Amino acid sequence: MDGVHWPCRGVAEHAYCPRLFYYMTVEGVFVPSADTEQGAGTHRRVDRPSEAPPPLDAASKAGRGKSAMEKLEEGDPANDPERPRSVRSLALTSDRLGLTAKLDIAEIAGTTAIPVEYRKGRPKRPWGFAPPVDDMMEEARLLPGPEPWPTDRVQLGLQAILLEEAGYTVTEAFLYYASERLKLRVVVDDALRREALAELEAAKRAAAGERPPPLVNDPRCPRCSLQPICLPDEINHQRLTALTVGGEGVDEQTTPRKLWPPRDDGIHVVLQREGIRVGVRGQSICVTDKEGQVVRDLPLANVESLAVLGGVQVSTQALTAFADQEVPVAFLTAAGRLVAMMDPLGPTSAAVRAAQVRVLDRPERALELARAVVVAKIVNQRTLLMRNHASLPGRVAADLQESASAAERAVTIDELRGHEGNAAATYFAHFAGMLKEGVKEIALRFDANGRRRRPPPDPVNAVLSFGYSMLSNECTVACRLASLEPTIGALHATRPGRPALSLDMMEPFRPLIADSIAVAAFNRGELSEGHFLDTAAGCALTDAGRKAFFGAYGRRMDTEVRHPAFDYRLSYRRMLMLHARLVAAWLVGEIPTLAFLTTR
Ligand code: SF4
User: How far apart are CA 132 and CA 138, in angstroms?
Assistant: First the structure.
């Protein structure tokens, strides 16, 4: 880390949460939240750079008229053009300390400087709430007053040190908490300097080490925008459970709180009609047909992912807009095979990818991951059959249970593949039994063919293949967002162009998502013989068939399901993301074991 200059705001974040500091400063991960957007709004007003600070020998006439702090108290001090000695957005750096800072405001008077920082929120109150201002009770008056948060003090301390290195004298600093229009004074003394420098050293040590563990049951986590990436409670649940003997003695602190919203509110767009075009108009994504008529107008900010199938045109401007918003764009063939993905150059954790290569290169560790996905897949196949088969022979469930147990004991990947193959043969031999009387013809065709992929010979095989392709695309997106390299897997061997890890990840979800969609869509009559074309290249969905499929697919991905270990509900799409992030946590050693979603 030699030669790196740490931003003092980042160092202050280390005091708030070392893991947050690591994510933001070392891995470059940042997720905006309502709080950060409001904070950015507050800073936009003070961040417009003003003129440079006056030279030290000329700066002696400060104090004429109202001071910047007086104007600041009046509400909008940053817009006053007559504030030549209130320098906004002052950038300072120290090679000696390896530290940089951008001060919201520095009030310069002669050789004296006063740093001023803006915060959109409230100050710290030792009693934890703000007493009513108009109706203040006597008891509340006796309580200690509001005070700056420790992180804010550290930031001001570091700014003061940088100003002193530049030759100024700094004896005090101010924090302005915008939501209460409250200005608090901080004395700059040796104690503050020591505290700030100690935090800087701790931050440098943390940056050179491994990602720190998450805070335990901390009230800061629910408001932290990195929470869906950090997964504090989920990781602590697994980490701390493993630290106790046999999982006993775990107190309720390790039971995950339900911090994630069960679904995202974003739009996942799939475009498949030949000849349509995707462009950008202002802040919207505009989809037009061959004649140039607008078919769809979508707010860009709400789009979470885009998948285009076959001959859909996407303009360079639209691709750039998606890249700016870090929206992954998947390009698939008309049959749903993923051929390329636009992967925005957003934050990517090199630590996770390095760990993936290191860990999966060791056969015994690769086997752990492969075992986890195969066991969960077989358990889910068994559950789907038991739930939907009209007359499942008793031995089938027992055979699948035995395959799952044997997979759990497998000592090589080849042995594991053998158990997976046996289970698949049993499962697909009874798959057609999940289809109802009304689709008997379709069921009979599948029974006669069995599971066949290339080319799919009948409607059920066609829907299964199409569903697996879409699922593999979802898993690739989840891998990318979790900083995983999709081409390096465990169960699936790495081959050029093969998303081996995505294929591994999707194994437990095949029965839960793709197979389930096929069974439900045929049984409900959403898909029927008329939605398929038999060609020399096999049986394929028509345009109308694909449209019907995507209706069922979207609903399934939005369906919420309970996680058996964490005991909260998430949509299937969020489950994929959760599992990708847990795989990343396992690879970097944050959690000791892996288990994939199984349902009852
Ligand atoms: S979720 Fe909690 S532990 Fe994770 S970075 Fe945020 S504050 Fe730190």
Answer: 11
